[in-house]
């Protein structure tokens, strides 16, 4: 059942969405770090 659920999520491009979210969070963290002199 878990595999079927994961397969369904991957068909909906969940992996791509998660990767994009992490990349954007990383970029934002770097921007904030520069603002705070880090």
From TrEMBL:
SUPFAM superfamilies: 6-phosphogluconate dehydrogenase C-terminal domain-like (SSF48179). InterPro entries: 6-PGluconate_DH-like_C_sf (IPR008927), P5CR_dimer (IPR029036). Residues 1-32 form the Pyrroline-5-carboxylate reductase dimerisation domain. It comes from the Bacteria. This is Pyrroline-5-carboxylate reductase. It comes from Flexistipes sinusarabici. The lineage of its organism: Bacteria, Pseudomonadati, Deferribacterota, Deferribacteres, Deferribacterales.
